[in-house]
């Protein structure tokens, strides 16, 4: 069972920065693809950023150039550095760990951390 615990959310003014953390229970980065998602008020959860093969990263167009995903393998922690924040970035941010068992995805989610950007 994979456990993910996010932290680092809060209230920030537009243009500000936050750094989210996701602590995983054990060494899972070799087996799981890690990423971040978010759910804005009244909207469905959407993908934000993730690692692909190795240390390669990929981002949603809406956050490209402002948000950066990174990880510390020794601490089993994934980060999301958020710069130049906009009010439309307001959402609950979720950490995700995914692997495929055959053709079926096996997903684990954290409890989420609230990010609120004021204008």
- Unreliable parts: none
Beta-strand content estimate:
over 45%
Instruction: Calculate Rg over CA atoms.
Output: 14 Å
Tally of contiguous helical segments: 0
Count all strands and give the number: 11
Helix-and-strand structural type = mainly beta
Helix content: under 10%
Biggest sheet statistics: 7 strands, mixed
Distance between the ends: 40 Å
Gross morphology is globular
| Mean residue pLDDT | 96
> Could you give the order of the helices and strands?
EEEEEEEEEEE
Summary of the model, kept short:
The protein is mostly beta strands and 119 residues long. The protein is built from no helices and eleven strands. Strand 4 and strand 5 form a beta hairpin.
General description of the model:
By secondary structure, the chain is mostly beta strands. It has no helices and 11 strands. The chain is globular, with a radius of gyration of 14 Å.
Features:
119 residues, single chain
Q: Any chance you could write out the topology, listing elements then pairs?
A:
Elements: E1 4-7, E2 10-13, E3 18-24, E4 33-39, E5 46-51, E6 57-59, E7 67-72, E8 77-82, E9 91-101, E10 104-109, E11 113-118
